[in-house]
Amino acid sequence: MSTIQKKLLLITGAAGQVGSALRPLLRERYRLRLLDRQPITPVEDEEAIAGDICDAALAERAVAGADAVLHLACIHGPAVKFESTLGPNYQATLQLLEASQRHGVKRFVFASSHHVLGQYRADAAHFFDALKPAPDSYYGMSKVFGESACASYALRGGPASFVIRIGNADAQVSDARRLRIWVSIRDLAQLICIGLEHPAVVSEIVYGVSNSPNPLFANTRAIDLGYQPQDNARDFLAPGFLDRDAMDPQSSGRDHVGGAYAAAALASVL
User: Fold this and answer.
1) pLDDT value at position 2?
2) Torsion angles phi and psi, residue 236, rounded to 5
3) What pTM does this model have?
4) Burial class of residue 93, CB neighbours in 10 A (0-12, 13-18, 19+)
5) For residue 145, what are the CA distances in angstroms to 149, 150, 152, 159?
6) Rounded to the nearest 5°, which phi and psi values hold at 71?
7) Strands 160-166 and 31-36
8) Which residues are paired to 181 by β-bridges?
9) For the segment 33-82, what is each residue's pLDDT rounded down to a tens digit?
10) Res. 28: pLDDT tops 90
C-alpha cells in the first residue's frame, strides 16, 4: 500500500529562533529543506543546506524541487544600517522569488514584521491593519520592499504569496507593548499552513498575532481564511513582565507600534 509523499518546504533562516521552534510543528505536514549560514543537523523528513542566502547559486539549488518556500532569513535590529540590509533583505528576497518562479514553486510565505507600521503611535487608532506602511527602521523599510516584491511576483505568474506581519514571537511576553502583538509558535505555524494550503491565497497580508487583551491588529483577513488562534498572550507573561508604567517612556518606545525600533534614531545613509 503506497503512501502520499509529503510536499517539500524550503525554510530559510531555519537555524534562527523562530525557524528552530517551527521545525517540529511543520515537520508533521511537510518534508523540510533547511537553509541557514549555521550548520543544522537534520532529523527524519529534513535535509539541510549550509550557506549564505545572498549567494544566487545557492538560492537556486535550495529552491530546486521545492513545492513551497518559507522565507524567514533576514538581518534585523533597531541599529541595523541601510547598507547592511541590501544583501540579505533585498537582493536575497528577489533571488528567492525569481528562482521560485523559474522552478514552479506554488507558494511563497514571507515573514514580514509589525515594524512596517512601527512608526505609528500605539494610541493613534484602535486597529492598525488598514494603515499605510510607516516603517520604524531600515529593517522595517526592507520588509515593506519584501511585501511589494511578493505581490509583484504573485501577480506576474506566481508563486502565490502569503505575507505574515509577525508581532513578537518570543517564548514569553516581556512587557505591555508586546502583550498586544505576541504570537505563539503553534499559532504562527497555523498561519503558515494556511498560507501554504488555502486555495484562495494569491497575494495576501495577514498578522502573526495570537489572542491578546487590547490587540493592535484585528487580523480580519486571517480570520476570514480560517485562522483560529489557540493561545492568548496574557497566559504567557514572563516572570519579570513590565506593565506600561514600568517601561521607560523614551528608550522602550512603549507608545509606538514598533517599540525601541521607533525610539532609536536612523543612522545616516551617507
Assistant:
1) 45
2) -130, 35
3) 0.97
4) buried
5) 6, 9, 11, 17
6) -100, 100
7) unpaired
8) none
9) 999 999 999 999 999 999 999 999 999 999 999 999 999 999 999 999 99
10) yes
CB 128 within 8 A of CB 171: no
Copy the grid coordinates of residue 100. Answer: 521560485
**CATH (residue range 8-263):** 3.40.50.720
pLDDT at residue 203 tops 90: yes
Kindly state the cell numbers that stand for 32. 523540510
pLDDT of 4 strictly over 80:
no
d(CA 146, CA 168): 19
Distance between CA atoms of residues 120 and 138, nearest Å: 15
Count of beta carbons in the 10 Å neighbourhood of residue 120? 20
What DSSP element (H or E) covers 88? none
Q: Active site residue: 30, 120, 138, 139, which one? A: 139
Inter-residue contact 184 to 173 (CB < 8 Å): no
261 is catalytic: no
Predicted pLDDT of residue 269: 79
Phi, psi of 90 (to 5 degrees): -105, -65
C-alpha cell at 154: 504573485
Reference 266, options 85, 74, 124; nearest CA is 85
Cα(211)–Cα(228) distance, rounded to whole angstroms?
9
User: Cα–chain-centroid distance for residue 235?
Assistant: 23
| DSSP 8-state class, residue 50 | E
Residue 20 burial (10 A CB sphere; 0-12, 13-18, 19+): middle
